[in-house]
Amino acid sequence: MKISIVIPVYNEEDTLRECLEAVALLRPRADEVIVVDNNSTDETYEIASSFDFVKLLREDRQGVVYARTAGFDASKGDIIARIDADTLLPKDWVKQVRAVFKDDRLMAASGKAQYYGASLAHVFNAVDLYFRRSLSRQLDGRLYLWGANMAIKREAWERVKDSLCYQKDIHEDYDVAIHLQRLNMRVAFDERLVAQVSSRRIDMNFLGFMAYVWKSPSTYAKHKESVYRAMMPIVITCAIGYLPARVLYRGYDPVKDSFSFTKLLSQSDKLTRVDPTVNVA
What's this model's pTM, rounded to 2 decimal places? Predict the structure, then answer.
């Protein structure tokens, strides 16, 4: 099974180089790596073009949904993998993707997260895994996909792509899962697929963060899928854990790999990531 990796990017100069360096170390290698630049105004395009194994595309329509689709359509692999610009893949990730898709019934899958860039990241990991396992049990087959660590068979993409939603205020990866399952195609959560992701998603004001979190159940609700209720404990946990999690992120000293009050107090209010659910023209 040939594997294509697609990475939609918008102003990701802070994370993309490390992401692609990890992709370069994959063994076995991916058969194809596509970076889709979505109108970046920083050095994202230049960074991507410095890696000779990257196929670099531009997508002028603003929105991760358009960049994702451009990359998926341009890819040649039997399986189309998708990660984010802050995803760090372990060396055996391609091997694990192939192992997961040995199940001929499976059409798409996501895996688990290991967070980096925050103190006590192992706590983030444990909470995240608890809820992913819980949702996989409770959603009764109506599973989500997670764009930072996912893969889909080409045949499934070709069948589903014309039915997908292109709008603000939904998680486009969840949307893919919903439409796949409406065509009776199997989506799975498989713990063999592991990816490191940045803790930067917490680095926004409380209302902005909760609006982002709410998009998960809201995406299901907008599709009239009642399983959105199973996600409400996650919303509540995120609201309670927001402040300590943001402090742990902002106070993290990567040099010492520990928490630092000096680092915490020196942080600016610059947001490190544009919310992809609203950055859609």
Answer: 0.95
